[in-house]
Amino acid sequence: MNRILDETIAALEEMKRNGVTHVEVSKETLEALGKPVVRREGEAPAEPKPAARREARPPTELATIEARAKACTKCSELSRCRHSVVFGVGSETAEIMFIGEAPGADEDAQGIPFVGRAGQLLTKIIEAMGCRREDVYIANIIKCRPPENRPPEPDEVANCLPYVLSQIELIKPKVIVALGATALRALLDVQLGITKMRGHWYTFRDIPIMPTFHPAYLLRNPPAKREVWDDMKAVLEKLGRKPPR
Q: How would you classify the pairing of strands 137-140 and 88-90?
């Protein structure tokens, strides 16, 4: 209500500055505002109009799963130490889905994946592909930050994997980009290193997967950015697109 009043006052002040000196106001509006209305003799007060009902939108399936994840306590250590459950962000109809390892300190504080230094680099990569963050979907295998950013334990990956699989099933991306070895191994159940597997196409539930280096690795090894960009060009080619000049 306060916001509506503030916006109304601002609009009236703008009209005054533009030379407007008179505004017609209906009797119904004045009655609703509790102001006296001058009526002709014998005129009955106007019947109040019924308020329009605003139908509440049912939550999407993805939102329902997110609520379930936020209440999850399967991993006692992670659920005890976390500040946020970092579920995912982006378009629910995205063609490209980026999946990383786990939230870091910045992500745990904000509840949004890839917002720290590595996330800022990922955003630059996405924009270089001619996309925006809101055009793609970004998530992690693990939804809670492991203490001291340690690698996730196998049982933690197993506990969180159903949430990731539900995200993939509902979003139905045309391409998955696996950022780093943890994401790749969780989805494909392989033990090969990311260096050997990056740049090659694999398949997960009929969806092409492109493994590539995690942005955090690129911060430590900037020359590897060229290889990641080659991988992203392959992703665009798979989608029938070309990178912007």
A: antiparallel
Sign (positive or negative) of CA dihedral 218, 222, 225, 227: negative
| Residue 85, number of CB atoms within 10 A of its CB | 22
Instruction: List, for residues 202-225, the tens digit of each pLDDT value.
Output: 999 999 999 999 999 999 999 999
> Angle at Cα 219 formed by Cα 213 and Cα 220, nearest 5°?
90
Taking every pair of Cα atoms in the chain, the longest distance, rounded to a whole number of angstroms, is 90
Per-residue model confidence as pLDDT tens digits over 20-75 = 555 555 555 445 445 444 455 555 555 555 544 545 556 689 999 999 999 999 99
* Domain 72-238 of CATH type 3.40.470.10: yes
Strand order in the sheet with 88-90: 88-90, 137-140, 96-100, 175-179, 207-212, 202-204
Parallel/antiparallel/unpaired status of strands 175-179 and 202-204: unpaired
Residue with tokens 């993805």: 62
Please list the residues that pair with 211 across neighbouring strands.
178
Give domain limits for the chain.
Answer: 72-238
- Indicate the pTM of the whole model: 0.76
> Residue 230: how many CB atoms within 10 A of its CB?
12
